Amino acid sequence: MADETAREIARLRAELAEAQRKQEVAERRQQEEQRLREEEQRRRELAEQVAGEQNLAHFLESCHTFCKKIRPVDDPGSATRGFTTDPASRLFPQTIALWDDFGERQQRTWTLLGDIDELWHTALYPSIAACKSIEAAIDPIGSEDDLRFLQRLTVDNMVKEMYNALMRNYELAPSLLGHGQISFENPASFREAEMSTLSDTMGGLAIRGTSGQQPRNTRADQFCVLWREDGSVRPLIAMEYKAPHKLTIEEICTGLQSEIQPERDVIGQDEGNSFVLLCRRLLAAVITQLFSYMIDKCVRYGYVCTGEAYIFLRIPDDPTTVYFSVNIPKKDYEVDVESRLQRTAVSQVFAFIQQALSEEPPSQAWVDDAKARRKRWKVEFVDVLATIPETERQSKEASEYRTREWRKGMRRSPIRLRSQCGEQVTHSTSRSDDSESDGAEDPPSPSPGVQTRSRTSRNAATRHAGTRGHQEGPSQGRNRTRIQDRAYCSHRCLLGLCRGLAIDRSCPNARKHLKHGAKHMLKDVFLRHVRHQLATDRGSAANCCPLFVHGSRGALLKVHLNVGGYTLVAKAMVHHDKTRLKHEAAVYDRLRRLQGRYVPVCCGTVELQMPYHYDGVELKHILLLSWAGTSLAQLRVQDEQFASIQPSCDKQIRQAYEAIEALQVLHQDAEPRNMVYNDKTGQLMIIDFERSEIVQRPALLELSPNRKRKRPVNQQGRKADHGEELGSVPSSLLRVQNNTRHV
Predict the structure, then answer these.
(1) Where is this region: Disordered (predicted)?
(2) pTM of the entire structure?
């Protein structure tokens, strides 16, 4: 009996153990299935995260991973050799000083962005997968060409992505670019393919300094430019690339450990000195090169980039000084944890562009001052790099890089706070279709300033601009209207000025004209006033500014005459091309009956007492014209409604060319860039007659829709006759449809 009971107990225990084992197996199976489901969910979420767009903080994190792969080639023999720079005959700064408030200026941009929650939660930026594909394309840097490609891939394009996303916020957009667009351009590509850079065409006619010598190269490697809605372009930042094996971090830190006064510390010093002196000479030469470019191009901001390091530069109101700030994004990111995202290369360049945008272009007085006070590098530059032995490049004298403190006296970093927010909204914010009003009566006018700027942007510009140190000229005044915002005079008004007719009461500036009498001043008096004003009114508030629109030989300026209030445009050329300008004036005189209807009103030519500095050249002669509108080439790019106005334009173009040719004038350049349209009046005009020909025979035209269309100059090089030129106009218009701006 006892044995039977024991067996029963053993059986029950075995059954219980088996049941427990099966339960444990089932639980483990269930746990494994749950683990697999969770793992699959994580994989899906990760895949979505990698493939989906990122918010701003995550995007900046992804961009910083590029820095980890940037390095010079391991084999120096495979890298390019030669001079790092050649500052011989270049104008150099008297002082190269540390930029103490660089961090504070950079921080202003992030303070503005940090106050807008939407920017930090909305997913608008390229995905992790997209950034990974860029990272995979990074190779060691062996030349400046390698570096230029790398920077475009990892920094320039990423900065443009930031602007593209941020500009969707219609409240923020005016504080950033207005209605403009940022682009990174080679010096020769500031204009579209059909328009060449002024300094390219003018060849050796670069600005000359007091010594009469000419810089060997007036180009930086690249410029950051602002394309405006009106098609004009303003250079903002000059960039110079140096391969990292030519300009190492150690050399940069050693050479720029303190202020440099080139004439005292570098020029004429014994070549056989210490590693420290060699580095200071090398860095003085590199900065001199970019400094010279910046002065020639009339920009305050620039940077030298090696891929690993950035030397940010700013020329203040005193153009004999340049401020520098050395930044190494990889190290700054690791050290400055609290502000690390604004220390990335993309963040730094973005904020630097905003600095440049906050200031108006330098004045003519600034350039005058620079030319009068600066000196040239007086000795031939020996290849400093070659004087530094490879053993010395690892010298114990080399200074270490130390990340500079940015947070002193600043509020907590907005980027760091936003980067802690893990959630992001996947929808984008649409930009409003309504644009801010530019004024009730002003005609559309090319303006070098951002046309639509918020109060925040204006305040930032005021803070950044500081105090102007040079003479402002007679037009200076606190309540004075900026020339960029002034309305152009009407064609009828300027016709009255040239022909002694009554003042046009419909002109936007009629009240200003009437303050000086019931009639227009004499034309000769007007021209004398213009000449005197352009020689004396050259400060930051001067009533003359560049429109940053230029063609093969001329550049456009906007001029407002203080006496009488006349506002018009001036086509300016160098002294070498004065005969071309006089020829164009003669053509306008031939077309006198058409002025104000088919061609602009020509108010005469002026030889300037003081040259106007523009794009590295000295403009000495101007042709004064009424403002006629925006070119069809530009409208096709920027105006979505262009197709609706094209039929009207076609008709007006044919009428204009028929009228021009009836006066025995061959335009010889019937291209869309020389056909301008005013969308306020619906009027189209033909411009740019410097290549035109006045023929001494009647124009016999027989227009036919089946006529063979030819270019103004045929394949044999013969100039077009009247019928051929008019026949070429439709072909020119067809090219407008395929015209695209390269950015």
Answers:
(1) 21-41, 412-481, 705-743
(2) 0.73
